[in-house]
Amino acid sequence: MIKRLLAGVAAAGVLGGLGFLYYAWYPPIAPIERPNPASFSAEQIERGRIVAAEGYCAECHTRTDNGGGPELAGDYKMDTPFGAIYSSNITPDVEMGIGAWSEEAFRRAMHLGVSRKGVHLIPAFPYDHFTKMTDQDISDLYAYIMTRPAVHMSRRPNELPFPLSLRILQAGWKLLYLRPGVYKPDPRHDALWNRGAYLAEGNAHCGACHTPRDLMGAEKKGSAYDGAVVDNWIAPALNEHNPTPTTWTEDELFQYLRFGVAPLHGPAGGPMSPVPHRFLSTVPEEDVHAIAHYFADVDHAAEREKNDKAALARAMEESKTDLIGPNVDPDAKLYQGACAACHYNAAPTPVLGRPDLALNNALWLDEPTNLYQVMLRGLTAEEGQSGVAMPSFYNALSDKDMARIAAYLRRTRTTLPPWTNLEKKAAEVRKTVQPVPVNSSH
């Protein structure tokens, strides 16, 4: 009996292994000669440019360290809990890029995460979102990419330990987490909402940054848009769990996504800054409206904004108290000297580009990470509101100074419990920031 049981288990294991290999195997797709750029119409190339901008392709496929690199030539370093991953060259170079890829091979990579040669792609390439894209959008994107300059540049090898370096294991990840299929409109919502959902959940892959991940590196589907840590910043929640006292209304979202600054929430900084400034500012306005419309529903803006007037009045009143009467609080004096000249608001509403910090996400998050990042890095004139810069305080403020300012703002500008270990956290964040030269005009 025991022998028969063991034999049955062994047979099941063999059959299961063969079944997995059958599931995991994809045939190579024959290479082609690089398509003639003249074979694509100007209209299709422009549509593809819009698709590329709404998917932020150049952001992850352009090297930023070591002096930077040519656009779309890859080698962008992505630090993950499993090791560093370097993006691929997607220019139409035949040897180093994807110039030998047919449109069929390109579509398979986008929808199923499999390369032309039949190799499984690492889900740092968010094909779990791109699978929702229509064939038309992928065809247009293919036309755009195949008409870009070919760059003969290799990327650094990934730094994944064995056995994670075995690409066949990605098939197991897909079995658990990938649900292939083009986005299907939700009949309960209008066309604008569905267009926004298609972009946000598909090509724009918003959840890739704003949804926390599990131990396997997959997005936690039950926590969609709950916020996550990205490149040493916190990507805030985009749903009803966003803690800011004023609501991310459809108009606030549109202003932020289109122009990089929202009157009641402040500017886009860190990894988010290129999204409005480099990409969404170049696409049809109606698509940005659609994304804003979708997320205003996700965060239940219509139900929440009834409290905005009271929150705004409270923020304006708190801003005034900093400069009224003899203030003996040494933390307040430090804040006044470093920050209040720009962030003081005497008007009934915040000054655009210089938001009152009582309304800013950074003070309402569970950690002061984003507040410290902005203190240390500053904001250039190309970030946030166009032409408005904030200097870096990397050299001007010590970790202890930053901790004092953070503690002061948290207790005077929010109704939340105080942050803990502030000085230690400041030191940790400082390690992730490149020192700013003393004579820098940043």
UniProtKB/TrEMBL annotation:
**InterPro entries given for it?**
Cyt_c-like_dom, Cyt_c-like_dom_sf, Cytochrome_c-type_DH, Membr-bd_ADH_cyt_c
Identify the residues that the record assigns to the Cytochrome c domain, covering every copy: 43-149, 191-299, 326-413
Q: Per UniProt, which keywords does this protein have?
A: Cell membrane, Heme, Iron, Membrane, Metal-binding, Repeat, Signal, Transmembrane, Transmembrane helix
Q: Where are the transmembrane segments?
A: 5-25
Q: What is its main location?
A: membrane
Where is the protein localized? Answer: Cell membrane
| Presence of the UniProt keyword Cell membrane in the record | yes
SUPFAM superfamilies, per this entry? Cytochrome c
Q: What is this protein called?
A: Aldehyde dehydrogenase
